[in-house]
Amino acid sequence: MKLMEMNHVGKAFDGVPVIRDISLSVEEGEIVSIIGPSGSGKSTLLRCATMLETMDSGELIYMGEKAAWSDETGKMTFASKRDLKRICENYGLVFQNFNLFPHFSVMKNITDAPIAVQKRDKEEVYRTGRELLKKMGLEDKENAYPCQLSGGQCQRVAIARALALNPKILFFDEPTSALDPELTGEVLKVIKSLADLDIAMVIVTHEMAFARDISDRVIFMADGVIVEEGTPEVVFASDNERTRSFLGRYGEMLK
Amino acid sequence: MSVSMMVSQLAGGMFVSVQIFVVTLVFSLPLGMIVAFGRMSRNPLLQGIVKVYISIMRGTPLMLQLMVVYFGPYYLFGIKITNSYRLWAALIGFVINYAAYFAEIYRSGIQSMPVGQYEAAKLLGYGKMQTFFKIILPQVIKRILPSVTNEVITLVKDTSLAFTISVLEMFAIAKALASSQTSLIPFAAAGIFYYLFNLVVAVGMDYAEKKLAYYQ
Questions:
Q1: Per-residue pLDDT tens over the stretch A137-196
Q2: Chain A interface mutation, best of B124, B128, B134, B142, highest count of A Cβ atoms under 10 Å
């Protein structure tokens, strides 16, 4: 079953098209990496998928339920507030710069939304929170505040926070771009360990080796369109000129 | 008149000063928040009205505003001013003046919040109210505390302006005593009172800042 579906999505900022006629779908448990040069529209695509940006045209569907769609005249319609609230529970997003709540402890960052938004049982949420922290290797940081953590630790807390809401699909917007190589490694390791959780993941990344190792499917974007998509083997060994020029040395190294 | 008698008379005025201070804070702090939302409203009419209001409150002397609130009802509508209206006029004048200042402080704090906090809250499913009260406001309070301290300290001293509409607060009584007793002691006592009052305020606000220093 298709968890998420985007059809012919377009988005422009001040008349400048950033993504053009993009169609993309994600299956249950699938891991998709989106790679491409800066400014190619990868992040915008993710922000449209998570409705942080309103798309200009096309349609967005989660679990067969339409969240947004444009009619023949090009006018966008969005699902009702109540429907959107339910639809939004399907996905989570991990930001490039974490966006943790600085005034909440690590534990509260993770548990507050499940308790305050999803109205789940406090005990159960805290138990889940502790399990997630253990999975992230942060079981001793429960009562720390984000300002006391390293960037890599912050990002792992942010991943735990997103997972605590039990999303079916988790988006990552360049999760390691704000981190040094050492911290990048620890975050990538954690993301890899999620592969067996049966959550679909869509990862915008510049970590080519990581994308190749973890993905079921790699999407290469440039200039607002999907240039190429397929299994890592296919995309990284592509003969497409644009893909090759972007992958450059990576492509050579991985061959 | 002995010094102790002067002090006991001044104590009565002190009570009125503290009263003006407390009532002004209790009402202008929340009112300022409402004004701040009006100022940030996307409705141009509402935003325009609030802008003019803030501009007048900041652009004219508080002393004059107190007089307008006190004498205005008579000159504008011919309503007879009663003696008991004096203190009310002072309270209303202070509240609407300080609300304007607090509104701008709130606005600066709210607009300095990174958009990522709103985006994270949205993704986690928080509603608008929850986002504001749980995520944004606590961080805004920490950010604006030093500016608020400034205003609160100014307010302590500004309460003395109530004497322009003959409210018998600390300063009015000190002035009357000074001329009737031809002594500077009442002024000295008043000075010490304002200083000690502000010392308490500063220590309290400092404590609050330290309390919120557990995160950055």
A1: 999 999 999 999 999 999 999 999 999 999 999 999 999 988 888 889 888 888 888 888
A2: B124
* ipTM attached to this prediction: 0.92
- Give CA–CA dist B167/A127, Å, rounded: 61
Question: By the 8 A CB rule, do A90 and A169 touch?
Answer: yes
The pTM score is 0.89
From residue A81, alpha-carbon distances to A117, A145, B99 in Å are: 15, 33, 34
Provide CB contacts within 8 A for B130, sequence distance 6+. Answer: A116, A117, B121
State whether residue A168 is helix, strand or coil. coil
Residues of B within an 8 Å Cβ radius of A: 114, 116-117, 119-120, 122-127, 130, 134-135, 138-139, 142, 214-216
Distance of residue A223 Cα from the nearest chain B Cα, in angstroms: 25
DSSP readout, B159-186? GGGGGGGT---HHHHHHHHHHHHT-SHH
Say yes or no to pLDDT of B155 above 70: yes
- By the 8 A CB rule, do A94 and A175 touch? yes
User: Are A174 and A38 within 8 A, CB to CB?
Assistant: no
Q: Which of A190, A187, A218, A188 is nearest to A202 (CA)?
A: A218
